[in-house]
């Protein structure tokens, strides 16, 4: 009986390892937003929320106006649909354990009708936990979130509109 239990435990451990490896595979992405070699996927989430846009005058273009992203507000979910963190202005990704990371956009790839796919290089993280030592973040599989189609002009400068969106956020750390 002891041998059976040990064998079953071993099979279960191998199955979990295999599933974990499959879940953490590097996703397909356009070249522009591909993470550099030497980094591995450590967490995948789905962000569901809203993007706020504000009508503003275009810089260096007298009389021209545009909708500008004022900030995101989304909940990050794991593959079990459990909330594991949030995404908000900065840009900042914060895990439920209090760790967080900000970053700088390196590249985008268009996704017609939705916000573009994105590659972000992470700044040094704050706190210990899920966001510790993150090196890159990809935004993939975006749905919605594009700037409003409504008019933005002198008559509504400062107006805000909220647009719903969803995107996959993939987090990387340097390979050891």
TrEMBL record:
Q: What is one Pfam family matched by this protein?
A: DUF3455
| Signal sequence range | 1-31
InterPro entries per UniProt:
DUF3455
Q: Which UniProt keywords apply?
A: Signal
Q: Does the keyword Signal apply?
A: yes
Q: Does the keyword Transferase apply?
A: no
PANTHER family xref list: CONSERVED FUNGAL PROTEIN (AFU_ORTHOLOGUE AFUA_1G14230), MALATE DEHYDROGENASE (AFU_ORTHOLOGUE AFUA_2G13800)
What is the protein named? DUF3455 domain-containing protein
Q: Which organism is it from?
A: Herminiimonas glaciei
């Amino acid at each position: 009986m002891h041998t059976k239990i040990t064998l079953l435990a071993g099979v279960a451990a191998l199955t979990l390892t295999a599933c974990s490896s499959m879940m953490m595979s590097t996703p397909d992405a356009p070249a522009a937003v591909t993470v550099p070699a030497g980094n591995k996927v450590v967490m995948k989430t789905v962000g569901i929320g809203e993007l706020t846009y504000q009508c503003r005058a275009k810089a260096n273009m007298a009389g021209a106006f545009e909708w500008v992203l004022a900030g995101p507000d989304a909940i990050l979910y794991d593959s079990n649909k459990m909330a594991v963190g949030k995404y908000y202005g900065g840009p900042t990704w914060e895990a439920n354990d209090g760790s967080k990371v900000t970053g700088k956009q390196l590249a985008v790839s268009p996704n017609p009708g939705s916000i573009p796919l994105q590659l972000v290089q992470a700044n040094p993280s704050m706190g210990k936990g899920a966001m510790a030592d993150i090196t890159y973040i990809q935004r993939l599989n975006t749905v919605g979130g594009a700037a409003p189609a409504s008019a933005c002009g002198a008559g509504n400068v400062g107006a805000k509109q909220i647009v719903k969106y969803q995107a996959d956020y993939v987090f990387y750390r340097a390979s050891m």
